[in-house]
Amino acid sequence: MTNIGVTELGYLGIGIRDLDAWRFYASEILGMEWGDSNGELSLRMDYWHHRILIEQSDEDDVLFAGYRVAGPEEFRMMQHHLEECGVPFKVASPAESEKRCVLEFLRLSDPAGLSIEIFHGPLVDRHKPYRPGRGMHGRFVTGSGGLGHIVIRDGGVEETYRFYRQVLGMRGTVEVRFEMGGVRREPIFMHCCERDHTIGFGVGPLPKRIHHLMVEVDNLDDVGLAYDLARRNGVPVLMAPGRHANDSMFSFYMQTPSGWFCEYGYGGAPPNHQSEYNLVGDIWGHEMVATSYTGEVGRETPG
């Protein structure tokens, strides 16, 4: 059977309660471009029409994750592959695809119930220069690495691994073994593009579908600027700046207005396509400086 799989995390859909808080956070802290077109709210990070779609919702959580395939042939192959795997899915209508600003997409769910969208042909607005919400020294790193990565709630580690490996075609395994609060943790990180990992899971119980979204910038000073802006504006910082051992990302973690976290990073390593693991989460730094939304204080999950 042909090896068919997704090629990047293209976009996220999030439900948020406080639009004003998110507008300030996304624009003035993260530096993203806030979009409002005919009542459709979105965040832009590059030439793509959107990287994050926003819906007003009391859930304050991720609603769906959009994974890309290369083109129409791969999209048909993915449908056949899903049928062979016995995974139920629904192809979106042309009107739904146009609203999503992609040529075609379909919907399915992962083992934890997170809505997954597989698409091809995103709308790319190269005639519209990207305008960050506040001054930046550089730009967001997207391109062949996609939007970034997410660490998600799993529906059982083995079942979740089988889904993302056998159904979506990602690769990966345990990258870190460590203890947190006396409990041994072996989170799994999986990749599908030129980013060390696109998803992570196996971090223990989570109150939301997402633990964090990582976005990467191409200038170290933008991480420092975001850190200063977060502290200056009262944004809770979960983990101080540091460098991860598994993907070499220099980053810090802060809370979003919805209660989950954003990792803001620089200098992440690409995948080496061969398995390896670490016994520590960080080369240095990333001290916990706040209580997470789970109420736990201690060493947070790397990645």
Automatic annotation (TrEMBL):
Keyword Oxidoreductase tagged: yes
Co-factor requirement: Fe(2+)
Classification via PROSITE patterns: EXTRADIOL_DIOXYGENAS (PS00082), VOC (PS51819)
Entry keyword set: Aromatic hydrocarbons catabolism, Dioxygenase, Iron, Metal-binding, Oxidoreductase
Superkingdom of the source species: Bacteria
Domain VOC as annotated: residue spans: 8-121, 146-267
Gene Ontology MF terms in the entry: dioxygenase activity; ferrous iron binding
Pfam families: BphC_D1, Glyoxalase
Coiled-coil stretches: none
UniProt similarity note: Belongs to the extradiol ring-cleavage dioxygenase family.
Record's protein name: 2,3-dihydroxybiphenyl 1,2-dioxygenase
Lineage: Bacteria, Pseudomonadati, Pseudomonadota, Betaproteobacteria, Burkholderiales
